[in-house]
């Protein structure tokens, strides 16, 4: 793992479009120009002793200068660069960042700004939440996935080996700043990955939103849809901030999807899947389980399958793959008392939580996914 840091100073500000902020429990999600207004106001009021900005090599190259150019005031920023990729979202990386914070005289009055995708916001939030027993942090998501999912809701953490998000805490940021111009720096595959989470929001909360998303043919002018997804996630999190009940619905497709993602990540002979690609498979599989266990209508199941297979490459699974993936289910964070708990759909927009699945249904679900 390679980690570097830099000292940098900001330059000029310019205007972009405005969107209304979304209030959460103890912070707000600000969009575009309002994001920079909120940040500048916050920095001028708080008088932080140190300001650290965590980036990876991609956001350092494509996002850092535009971001710094919109900050008003005179501050000395320490830039900490991490290597991108889920494989670097681990305790070893955290240890390196904690050491850098200490070497650069970080204290409890420091601020960490996490400028990047879900790996950066998850890991950066966890590092900030645990350094000196907690310093302030701000999330600035730069990918579609992190804008609509990872940066909102206070979940922070890292992976334990290939196992997703096994170590972490729920701790809220000072604010979340969503600047949709950053989406212009992303490849189509990354945008598609984030779009899977938006489709999930429709499946678990709003059938009309699902229908609207199905019509999206390109990723331009996405502000209104991103805003709707953030509202959906924020509404769920406000009702259940610590995932005791309702918030579990956000994990639809993730029980099998995370196991698939972990399996493909740890097997070097497999091409790693992006989060949204694995979750897309998981949503089809768990749609099949929904049909058998809670009565999801056949037509809606077919709609779910056709929608995801129309957008995401089909993944081939051998019998050995399936066996290994199912073995990973025991590590899912929703499990309790030895039970593997699923979020399933009674219908599109109507989820149900804590459903146990008979073993014989898993292979049937994979067979359904594999059918043409």
UniProtKB/TrEMBL annotation:
Gene3D superfamilies: 3.40.50.1970, Dehydroquinate synthase-like - alpha domain. One of its GO terms (cellular component) is cytoplasm. Its EC number is 4.2.3.4. Residues 194-335 form the 3-dehydroquinate synthase C-terminal domain. GO terms for biological process: aromatic amino acid family biosynthetic process; chorismate biosynthetic process. Residues 80-192 form the 3-dehydroquinate synthase N-terminal domain. Keywords: Cobalt, Lyase, Metal-binding, NAD, Nucleotide-binding, Zinc. CDD domains: DHQS (cd08195). Pfam families: DHQ_synthase, DHQS_C. Its cofactor is NAD(+); Zn(2+); Co(2+). InterPro entries: Dehydroquinate_synthase, DHQ_synth_AroB, DHQ_synth_fam, DHQS/DOIS_N, DHQS_C. The keyword Zinc-finger does not apply. Catalyzes the conversion of 3-deoxy-D-arabino-heptulosonate 7-phosphate (DAHP) to dehydroquinate (DHQ). This is 3-dehydroquinate synthase. It comes from Pseudozobellia thermophila.
